[in-house]
Design brief:
By secondary structure, the chain is an alpha+beta fold. Helix content is 53%, strand content 9%. The chain has two domains: 176 residues, no CATH class; 32 residues, no CATH class. It contains ten helices and five strands, in the order ααααββββααβαααα. The N and C termini lie far apart (53 Å).
């Protein structure tokens, strides 16, 4: 029995250590990936957005670039484009003509311009997304930007409108009066911040369950950055797995020390030996 326990422990120990190394390598890779994406976006936004300008002017500068930039590429087959890659969404004309990817492009540039923003899904009665817009925090209010139509939602007096105000059909009609072919289906009576359709658990009615447990869960943090940008997704997943395997390793080590009494070299001792080997000069005679 003792031999079988020891064999199972050794298998678990080496498996967890291997997975820890793989997840740590993934964490390093995804960290570099996310850093390079952020550096690219910072450089891109610096070229088109005056960072010293008030928030409304920064929003308008991004929308102006989306309206009139003529250097964008055209893909022979738009379905092959990666809409979760910021470099792709900013570079192809077809993606900026779709509400979801146009909003992603706007959000990426706005975040890099020090604006506080989040995605807003307009939902149909069956809780499916029918349109995607953005919310920007300006003067303490989350006002609506529609990146597909390149517009900040305003009433006739130029007052910026929030989603709660746009639930009023009269105000929505005012805000969209100058937008050609604006669909009457794009209303604000039902909305959400997180798109769960990407997740395999959507079939389990995950949104309804989370709404019952904590109604404000989708406003708690910026979930959209994790769900809609591949580099951020990879970073969060690799960090989570690294923490999980570190805790698993610590639990196995505790079990070995208290129950199996296995002689092993502790991780901190290995780190100390490595430090001694690296930073202590060799002695020559």
């Amino acid at each position: 029995m003792a031999a079988s326990k020891l064999g199972l422990f050794r298998f678990s120990w080496w498996t967890v250590n291997l997975l820890l190394v793989v997840s740590a390598a993934g964490l390093l890779y995804s960290g570099v990936w996310e850093f390079s994406v952020r550096r690219y976006l910072n450089g891109f936004s610096d070229a088109i957005v005056p960072n010293s300008a008030p928030p409304v002017q920064r929003v308008e500068a991004i929308l102006e670039w989306m309206r009139f930039n003529t250097t964008r590429m055209v893909a022979p087959d738009p379905s092959t484009l990666d809409s979760r890659n910021p470099e792709v969404t900013l570079g192809y004309r077809q993606l900026l003509a779709v509400c979801g990817s146009a909003t992603s492009a706007f959000l990426n540039l706005a975040r890099s311009s020090d604006l506080k923003v989040r995605r807003l899904l307009l939902l149909s009665p069956n809780r499916r997304a029918k349109h995607v817009v953005a919310e920007v925090l300006i003067d303490g209010r989350w006002v609506i930007v529609d990146p597909l139509y390149r517009t900040l939602m305003r009433n006739r007096q130029g007052h910026l409108l929030t989603r709660s105000e746009l639930r009023d059909p009269a105000l929505l009609a005012e805000a969209t009066r100058s937008i050609p072919n604006y669909s009457s289906e794009y209303t604000y009576e039902s909305s959400a911040h997180v798109r769960l359709a990407r997740l395999p658990l959507e079939g389990l009615k995950l949104r309804a369950l989370l709404d019952r447990i904590y109604p404000a869960w989708d406003e708690l943090i910026d979930w959209n950055l994790v769900l809609e940008r591949e580099s951020a997704t990879a970073l969060v997943l690799s960090a989570s797995f690294t923490c999980l395997f570190l805790l698993s390793r610590a639990a196995l080590a505790r079990y070995a020390d208290q129950h199996l009494h296995v002689l092993r070299t502790h991780l901190r001792e290995k780190a100390m030996r490595l430090g001694v080997a690296l930073f202590t000069g060799a002695e020559f005679k």
